[in-house]
Amino acid sequence: FQQRLQEVREGIHFVITATSRPKRPGEVDGKDYFFVTKEQFLSMVNNDELLEYALVYGDYKGIPKQQ
């Protein structure tokens, strides 16, 4: 899906979000998400490293500024 969309629309960039939830079978760190601990995520918040973030069902999700 992503590849086809990028072929049709130039300039589209897909971001990889950071999450504090555990990795599920088959997921790849750095491809599906950046998997971090809750402590690491909160450090990212405190260091202003995220564009936005939210607490979702007890786990944090956010977009790193490096994206």
Automatic annotation (TrEMBL):
Q: Does the keyword Nucleus apply?
A: no
What is the top-level taxon of the source organism? Eukaryota
A family per Pfam: Guanylate_kin
Its GO CC terms?
cytosol
Q: Which SUPFAM superfamilies match?
A: P-loop containing nucleoside triphosphate hydrolases
Q: Which UniProt keywords apply?
A: Kinase, Transferase
Q: Name one GO molecular function term.
A: GMP kinase activity
Residue intervals of the Guanylate kinase-like domain: 1-67
PROSITE patterns from the UniProt entry:
GUANYLATE_KINASE_1, GUANYLATE_KINASE_2
InterPro entries annotated for this entry? GK/Ca_channel_bsu (IPR008145), Guanylate_kin-like_dom (IPR008144), Guanylate_kinase_CS (IPR020590), P-loop_NTPase (IPR027417)
Family assignment from sequence similarity: Belongs to the guanylate kinase family.
Record's PANTHER family?
A: GUANYLATE KINASE, GUANYLATE KINASE-RELATED
The protein's name? Guanylate kinase-like domain-containing protein
